[in-house]
């Protein structure tokens, strides 16, 4: 800039104070980057800009880093505390152009050669005002676009976008390490410059993303695709119409699908959503986002694969990514959300719209595949919900593999770009749509989204407690295919109209693995733990003392035998969990002469079971162990392991559990040892039985799996009477019998009355290999079914077993 001296300092300080509000990454710079503030250090900035320098100074003073404007004294030599990378390179070539800066760097290197104990830390600092990646222009060099913010352009950028600035401190560069590695020679400075230049380019892409194609350029590029040209010819010949008509239809489809990012819309939406989240949530807890940053920095294209609980999911996840310093993904949204004005706003925020079913529409299928493939090839991150829609029950839904197939095909077309899938668990203490989900499970028609329903929903907004975003372990598609399909690289850049025979089963396996990793990252909280305990009681009520003991049991189980290293457990005591649940009005406290009782209102039972189902998988195996011990009174570890192993494959496929069958004995040993430690059971010479004084807690723990065991008993009882029954008939008959028994016997398996849920459960049983699709049963299959029935009949109560047998026989005579 043209302002210098004291007046310049005053001007820049005021400019920064008024217009600039920066997010600093990483959060704890000194410890995260292992910076030793007792050793000399220099800051390396990209642009020769005093605005950047004073912005850096403002933040350094706040986080106890050296002031960049103070001179650096090293063995009697005085140096500036900062350098500009722009002083060393031009937009035409990476060559040194400013001799004064070159002399400073040369002097520093000479000092390192003279003093062996000297090691100056060079810390590159990337400062970005505004988060819009810009439109790609074929006439403009990409390098030039990174270095063009100077003078008045930079001043006005700060005025408009200064409150949306990002300061990212990059990993330090040790000059001593470079000298040791490369030796002292004339190229050492150029090596340092190249390393720093790569850092800056990579970090800018991580923060703002790759350049966007202008929408018109995107349309032209897709229309020139070989696949689209082939489809145009094929469609024109098939329907005997002009290729121009087909091209016009394709343009319409591309416009219907494609996103239209707007920097201004993102900027104002961020401010709006910051206010909304403060009103709705007491806090947003995030875990594991560092793994996403590392993948982005290493050049991976990120595909976010979250579970789907609520319409809040994509808004919340985009907000979190934005405030973690990562660029926004393109989000696959259902076409039902494309209504005015929400559809237009969502497009500006990165949503692209997808029809629910388009298997029979080849034209739409090809256009969508080309669009998604273009996004992935260009390095844009993408977000889609692998379940296809929101979960109505709280469990994870069966995954849909269509988007995964397109992702794999895109990687085959551009094998040089690695793609990683990032599973994400999203959890809430309150979901606004739960009452609508319950009505849909009872048979009500799903209400169509629109402006009126959106306005009505705004009236129900209130304090929703905590929300949780847990990033699971990423899955690298390249590594996955290298391990399982070594020949996959032979298919790169082959005919994109066909895909290899192994692609569909691999997509299915990857989908299952992603669902397991989502569940691995589950978040237990005060609401789902408290509701789990109270729902386990017959009358949906517990004394406060009972509830406290039961929550302590759950917390000890989850802490001492963690379900997964990625799962999170609340750092609160049992009493604090209860108090929080009461404040959230999920539970009711009733006082009488005997003390305090925590009650679940009858009308809330079905609503709150949704939250229990979010973490059902974390406690289902302890619950099964408790059930077996209670029902058999005495059982040795070998028999316990046998019975759990019989039922486990069904539970694994249905609930996406993480352990393989051969890992089960070790897991059971740990869980039994924990139950012994909690004094709920005792073990004498390998025989396990219920311990006096622990039966109440063990009974409540066992009640968690009661519903699913009853449902399995119904399904296998039907199979005993109809060995050759089809899946469709099995679902129908199971649904009828569950509804009958839920009325006659007060069975609580009402969540399973919905045929879509029953279908997924029965498919899980088929996938586990317990039922064969082939017509005509054999003796081995019937024997297998009988063995499962024996185990199940022993684990459900006698009244329920007799009611199920009676209902199945009655149905068989109809």
UniProtKB/TrEMBL annotation:
GO terms for cellular component: plasma membrane. A motif (HXXXXD motif) lies at residues 307-312. Pfam families: Acyltransferase (PF01553), GPAT_C (PF19277). The keyword Acyltransferase applies. CDD domains: LPLAT_DHAPAT-like. The keyword Lipid metabolism applies. Pathway: Lipid metabolism; Phospholipid metabolism; CDP-diacylglycerol biosynthesis; CDP-diacylglycerol from sn-glycerol 3-phosphate: step 1/3. Its main location: membrane. This is Glycerol-3-phosphate acyltransferase. It comes from Candidatus Erwinia haradaeae.
């Amino acid at each position: 800039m043209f302002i210098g001296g004291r007046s310049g300092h005053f001007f820049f300080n005021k400019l920064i104070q008024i217009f600039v509000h920066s997010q600093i990454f990483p959060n704890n710079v000194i410890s995260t980057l292992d910076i030793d503030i007792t050793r000399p250090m220099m800051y390396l900035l990209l642009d020769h800009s005093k605005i950047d320098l004073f912005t850096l100074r403002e933040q350094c003073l706040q986080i106890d880093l050296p002031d960049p404007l103070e001179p650096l004294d090293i063995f009697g030599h005085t140096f500036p505390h900062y350098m500009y990378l722009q002083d060393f390179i031009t937009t035409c070539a990476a060559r040194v152009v400013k001799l004064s800066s070159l002399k400073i760097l040369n002097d520093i290197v000479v000092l390192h050669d003279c003093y062996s104990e000297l090691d100056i830390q060079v810390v590159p600092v990337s400062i970005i005002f505004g988060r819009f990646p810009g439109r790609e222009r074929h006439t403009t060099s990409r390098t030039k676009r990174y270095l063009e913010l100077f003078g008045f352009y930079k001043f006005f950028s700060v005025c408009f976008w200064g409150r949306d600035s990002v300061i990212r401190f990059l990993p330090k560069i040790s000059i001593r390490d470079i000298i040791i590695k490369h030796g002292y020679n004339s190229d050492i400075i150029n090596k340092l410059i190249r390393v720093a230049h790569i850092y800056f380019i990579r970090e800018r892409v991580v923060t703002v993303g790759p350049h966007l194609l202008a929408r018109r350029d995107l349309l032209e590029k897709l229309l020139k695709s070989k696949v689209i040209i082939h489809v145009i010819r094929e469609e024109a010949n098939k329907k005997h119409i002009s290729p121009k008509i087909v091209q016009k239809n394709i343009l319409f489809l591309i416009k219907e699908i494609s996103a239209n990012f707007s920097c201004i819309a993102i900027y104002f939406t961020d401010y709006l959503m910051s206010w909304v989240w403060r009103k709705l949530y007491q806090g947003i807890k995030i875990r594991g986002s560092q793994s996403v940053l590392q993948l982005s920095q290493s050049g991976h294209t990120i595909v976010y694969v979250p579970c789907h609980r609520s319409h809040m999911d994509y808004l919340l996840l985009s907000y979190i990514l934005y405030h973690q310093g990562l660029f926004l993904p393109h989000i696959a949204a259902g076409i039902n959300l494309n209504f005015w004005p929400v559809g237009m706003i969502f497009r500006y925020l990165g949503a692209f719209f997808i029809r629910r079913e388009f298997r029979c529409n080849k034209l739409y299928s090809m256009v969508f595949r080309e669009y998604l493939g273009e996004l992935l090839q260009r390095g844009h991150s993408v977000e889609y919900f692998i379940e296809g829609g929101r979960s109505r029950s709280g469990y994870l839904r069966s995954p849909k593999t269509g988007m995964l197939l397109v992702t794999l095909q895109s990687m085959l077309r551009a094998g040089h770009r690695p793609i990683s899938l990032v599973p994400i668990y999203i959890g809430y203490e309150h979901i606004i749509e739960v009452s609508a989900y319950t009505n849909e499970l009872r048979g009500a028609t799903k209400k169509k989204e629109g402006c009126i329903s959106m306005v009505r929903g705004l009236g129900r907004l209130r304090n929703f407690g905590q929300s949780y975003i847990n990033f699971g372990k990423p899955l690298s598609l390249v590594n996955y295919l290298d391990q399982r399909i070594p020949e996959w690289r032979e298919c790169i850049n082959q005919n994109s109209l066909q895909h290899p025979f192994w692609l569909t089963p691999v997509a299915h396996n990857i989908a299952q693995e992603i669902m397991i990793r989502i569940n691995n990252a589950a978040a237990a909280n005060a609401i789902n733990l408290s509701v789990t305990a109270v729902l386990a009681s017959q009358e949906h009520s517990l004394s406060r003392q009972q509830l406290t003991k039961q929550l302590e049991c759950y917390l000890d189980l989850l802490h001492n035998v963690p379900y997964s290293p990625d799962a999170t457990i609340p750092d609160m005591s049992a009493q604090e969990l209860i108090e929080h649940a009461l404040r959230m009005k999920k539970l009711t406290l009733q006082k009488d002469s005997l003390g305090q009782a925590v009650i679940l209102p009858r009308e809330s039972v079905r609503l709150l079971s949704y939250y229990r189902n979010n973490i059902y998988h974390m406690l289902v195996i302890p619950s099964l162990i408790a059930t077996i011990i209670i029902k058999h009174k005495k059982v040795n570890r070998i028999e316990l392991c046998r019975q759990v192993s019989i039922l486990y494959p069904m539970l694994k496929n249905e609930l996406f559990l993480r352990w393989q069958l051969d890992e089960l004995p070790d897991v059971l040993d740990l869980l039994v040892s924990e139950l012994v430690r909690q004094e709920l059971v005792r073990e004498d010479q390998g025989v396990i039985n219920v311990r006096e004084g622990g039966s109440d807690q063990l009974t409540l723990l066992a009640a968690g799996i009661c519903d699913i065991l009853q449902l399995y008993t119904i399904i296998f009882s039907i199979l005993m009477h109809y060995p050759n029954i089809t899946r469709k008939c099995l679902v129908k008959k199971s649904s009828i019998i569950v509804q009958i028994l839920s009325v006659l016997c007060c069975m609580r398996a009402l969540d399973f009355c919905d045929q879509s849920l029953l279908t997924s459960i029965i498919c899980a049983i088929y996938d586990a290999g317990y039922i064969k699709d082939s017509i005509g049963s054999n003796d081995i299959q019937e024997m297998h079914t009988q063995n499962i029935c024996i185990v199940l009949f022993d684990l459900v109560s006698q009244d329920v077993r007799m009611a199920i047998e009676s209902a199945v026989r009655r149905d068989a005579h109809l």
